[in-house]
Design brief:
The complex is a heterodimer of chains A (117) and B (116). Helix content of chain A is 0%, strand content 52%. Chain A is built from no helices and eleven strands. In chain A, strands 2, 4, 5, 6, 9, 10 and 11 form a seven-stranded mixed beta sheet that branches. A four-stranded antiparallel beta sheet of chain A has the order 1-3-8-7, with no helix packed on it. In chain A, strand 5 and strand 6 form a beta hairpin. The termini of chain A are far apart. Chain B is mainly β and 116 residues long. Chain B has no helices and twelve strands. In chain B, strands 2, 5, 6, 10, 11 and 12 form a six-stranded mixed beta sheet that branches. In chain B, strands 3-9-8-7 form a four-stranded antiparallel beta sheet, with no helix packed on it. Chain B has a two-stranded antiparallel sheet with strand order 1-4. Chain B starts with a strand and ends with a strand. The chains are: A mainly beta (117), B mainly beta (116). At the A-B interface, strand 4, strand 5, strand 9 and strand 10 of A face strand 6 and strand 11 of B.
């Protein structure tokens, strides 16, 4: 079946630094990838939708300049948290989807636990 | 806006017990409904789905029926196993985002622990 690899699974960084999270579709081409954020005991909140070769569409309230998303190929999307602060500490999870139109299955990565100290 | 409400966890059951995890939704139109499961250390996996009213999704002994009149999609299993221990997310998808996909709206998740 479709597999999405997300890396790293855990990362600790200092305030002010940037962190890059990778999301790869291993056995299919992902025309669309999604980035979610999950706070403790909260639901997954969609941050942005990215399509290969075009700019990401950010949800309301998500800072584009802080959460940089690049979807340069059909198998790779990256989320870079720039100038990270402790409040950015969270669980980030990506999802990839092949094809356009219809309810194709969404495949999720295993998530990245970011801790900013 | 659209929202999904599912029962607070954690839920702890003995093996072979009956499981119900309640899920209700708020949405205009006709959403599709999903249950996802997240095993420890893994990503979310689609467990089952239903795309229209009265549809029943089923997989691995789990079932959920799309009830439009009660806006519910409760997850049930007749006899849980230790291997069912995971976090379960109810979700809905509606509309066409214009980006080639449907957007998912998730509930907060319910952690299930099954003890021998």
């Amino acid at each position: 079946g479709a597999v999405v690899s997300q890396h790293p699974s855990r990362v600790i960084c200092k305030s002010g630094t940037s962190v890059k999270i990778e999301c790869r579709s291993l056995d299919f081409q992902a025309t669309t990838m999604f980035w979610y954020r999950q706070f403790p005991k909260q639901s997954l909140m969609l941050m942005a939708t990215s399509n290969e070769g075009s700019k990401a569409t950010y949800e309301q309230g998500v800072e584009k300049d802080k959460f940089l998303i690049n979807h340069a190929s059909l198998t790779l999307s990256t989320l870079t948290v720039t100038s990270a602060h402790p409040e950015d500490s969270s669980f980030y999870i990506c999802s990839a989807r092949a094809g356009t139109g219809g309810l194709y299955g969404y495949t999720f990565g295993s998530g990245t636990r970011l801790t900013v100290v | 806006g659209d929202s999904v409400t599912q029962m607070e966890g954690p839920v702890t059951l003995s093996e072979e017990a009956f499981l119900t995890i309640n899920c209700t939704y708020t949405a205009t139109g006709y959403p599709s409904l999903f249950w996802y499961v997240q095993y420890p250390g893994e990503g979310l996996q689609l467990l089952l789905k239903a795309t229209k009213a009265d549809d029943k999704g089923s997989n691995k002994g789990f079932e959920a029926t799309y009830r439009k009149e009660t806006t519910s999609f409760h997850l049930e299993k007749g006899s849980v196993q230790v291997s069912d221990s995971a976090v379960y997310f109810c979700a809905l998808a509606k509309g066409y985002s214009g980006a080639g996909s449907y957007q998912l709206t998730f509930g907060k998740g319910t952690k299930l622990s099954v003890i021998p």
